[in-house]
Design a protein that fits this description.
The protein is 5% helix and 56% strand. Strand 12 and strand 13 form a beta hairpin. The chain has 3 helices and 20 strands. The protein has one domain: Beta Barrel (Porin). The strands form 3 sheets. It has a 16-stranded antiparallel β-barrel. It has a two-stranded antiparallel sheet with strand order 10-11. It has a two-stranded antiparallel sheet with strand order 15-16. It is mainly β.
């Protein structure tokens, strides 16, 4: 074997250490429900990724929070035909906001309706094709790593399509739609379907103002639909999304929940968000002074249907982001929340009211590598 052969033989595997650390602080102007001001280790995720050989790449990432470990991405991937085949645990293809990395989302938390997509990472087979003007993603999936193993394993299928028509230099138009169907065993640990949200902030990680409860919904199956719209022109970006879930219920009338959000942002220093594969990436500062971004978002989520009083939540969020580099970002959000007809609020206030309207300030220091 010549030197070239020896070099090629020892070229793989190639890998790099990966990680992210998101540290949050929150201060609440309470209405009826009490919140805990303070700090929260929102994310601490570490792992490795790289190439096993010329065909296969891999990623292994683990979340470390509150003294416990949980699996994030544990997957292998290779090119097959015009696209890529992924085997293992990764995100089910649904929702523009959900599929945008937590390192790259515009606000400290994703919009409330994204919680219609619980257990976003699952074990399965995933295939995606991405061309200049379209992206198609599909999945066949079961449970999540470390998830509940009692009863039959859930089985789900998902499909997502994105169209990016050419509309002019420096501009981007994103049109997307997705559907996810999941068949559940009503006797298994996956059948209790709980939909809930903290009011787009987790400095207090335990207080939820809207929730369908832990065992109020025993599901035979769920069907989720999503519509996506986004536009970008240089430093200006706008995004809107609608999500709906239909629940075929084993312990009562079938129910449907839905929600939507719309947001705009502007990078004062002129940079644009990166984009590829049907989702947005982050902002890389062009100058030594970093990049500044301002943003606003309106969101609404309705968890009331039939006998389920999960509540309605409407949020208005204002945000400022400072990108010191592509790895280090500082964020500040001011959130005005309004909750109506929520059993969760009633439980937290001892039955005094089902409504709540807190305001709060959130801050985050984010480092990724």
């Amino acid at each position: 074997m010549g030197l070239a052969g020896v070099s090629q033989a020892f070229a793989y595997p190639e890998f790099e250490v990966r990680g992210r650390l998101h540290l949050d602080a929150g201060f609440y102007d309470e209405d009826n429900v009490e919140f805990d001001d303070g700090f929260n280790n929102r994310r601490a995720r570490f792992g490795v990724g790289g190439d096993l050989d010329e065909n296969w790449d891999f990623r292994i990432e683990t979340n470390v929070t509150e003294g416990s470990l949980s699996a994030a991405d544990y997957r292998l991937r290779r090119g097959v035909g015009p696209g890529r085949l992924t085997i293992g645990q990764t995100k089910v293809p649904m929702g523009l906001n959900q599929l945008t990395s937590s390192n790259s989302i515009t606000f400290i938390e994703r919009a409330s309706p994204q919680n219609i997509i619980p257990d976003s990472r699952r074990l399965g087979f995933f295939y995606d094709v991405s061309e200049d003007m379209f992206t198609f993603q599909t999945a066949l999936f079961g449970r999540d790593l470390g998830g509940r193993e009692d009863g039959d394993m859930p089985l789900g299928v998902a499909g997502r399509g994105v169209f990016n028509p050419s509309i002019g230099q420096g501009q981007l138009l994103h049109l997307g739609a997705s559907v996810v169907y999941e068949d559940l065993d009503s006797d298994s640990g996956y059948a209790p379907r709980s939909f809930s949200d903290r009011p787009e902030g987790r400095a207090d990680p335990n207080t939820r103002l809207i929730s369908t409860g832990g065992f109020d919904i025993i599901a035979d199956s769920t069907t989720k639909y999503g519509l996506e719209l986004a536009y970008q022109a240089g430093p200006f970006s706008a995004e809107a999304e609608y999500l709906n879930v239909d629940v075929d219920r084993d312990n009562g009338e079938d129910v449907s929940f839905d929600g939507y959000h719309a947001q705009v942002s502007y990078v004062l220093t002129g940079e644009s968000r990166s984009y590829g594969g049907g989702s947005f990436g982050g902002i890389t500062p062009r100058g030594p002074g970093g990049a500044w971004e301002v943003a606003a978002r309106y969101s609404h989520m309705d968890l009331n249907d039939e006998d389920v009083m999960g509540g309605e939540q409407t949020n208005l969020t204002l945000g400022v982001n400072y990108y010191y580099s592509s790895n280090l970002r500082f964020m500040a959000n001011y959130v005005m929340a309004d909750v109506k007809d929520s059993q969760a609020v009633s439980d937290l206030t001892g039955g005094e009211t089902m409504d709540d309207s807190p305001n709060f300030v959130l801050a985050r220091m984010q480092y990724s590598f």
